[in-house]
Amino acid sequence: MAKWFPHIYDIAMKPLEKMRFERIRANLVRQAQGKVLEIGFGTGANFHYYQDVERVDAIEPNPAMSKQANKRIQKTHTPIYTYQAKAEELPFEDNRFDTIVATLVFCTIPDPEKALQEIRRTCKVGAKILLFEHVKMDQKMMGKTQEALTPVWRKMCDGCHLNRDTLKLVKQSGLEVQKVTSYYGGLFLTIECCNSL
């Protein structure tokens, strides 16, 4: 992992947030209800979007990233509890959560299939799973470019895979995909799912 990455993350994201990301995040996160689990909260960019939720348990494996989230936690009225943990090994009991939120994080999870199993285990039947991710594009040339850039990109950007087909992984996990919205020619997707065990 590049040690400098957590320190420049918010700076790098600022132009993207100004474009449309802020609205996309807000619209997605505001759908959360009840007890919420946020996967990979990073620097806490989603925290101020939570509205009518009981509490948010948020995990982040990178201590340098989570350290920067403390200021955002102090500015929110939502009860937020953070944990240094991996998505593949969630420290929560079965059937706990009403909503799972993950934004721009599945690209970095080393074993996304295991993470999706853990999400299904820890959320209730009927729970919402709300994802905002960049994915491998369907356009042949762009997809090949993503494949070629991924090895270097992973080293620079905290393990991020430009070529990950997160939608396919979600469909294979058994979650019921209810709505997919494409942005920027299919480079980014919001994926709204339900745990319909």
Automatic annotation (TrEMBL):
<dbReference type="GO" id="GO:0008168">
    <property type="term" value="F:methyltransferase activity"/>
</dbReference>
<keyword id="KW-0489">Methyltransferase</keyword>
<dbReference type="InterPro" id="IPR013216">
    <property type="entry name" value="Methyltransf_11"/>
</dbReference>
<dbReference type="InterPro" id="IPR052356">
    <property type="entry name" value="Thiol_S-MT"/>
</dbReference>
<dbReference type="InterPro" id="IPR029063">
    <property type="entry name" value="SAM-dependent_MTases_sf"/>
</dbReference>
<dbReference type="GO" id="GO:0032259">
    <property type="term" value="P:methylation"/>
</dbReference>
<keyword id="KW-0808">Transferase</keyword>
<protein>
    <submittedName>
        <fullName>Methyltransferase type 11</fullName>
    </submittedName>
</protein>
<dbReference type="Pfam" id="PF08241">
    <property type="entry name" value="Methyltransf_11"/>
</dbReference>
<feature type="domain" description="Methyltransferase type 11">
    <location>
        <begin position="37"/>
        <end position="130"/>
    </location>
</feature>
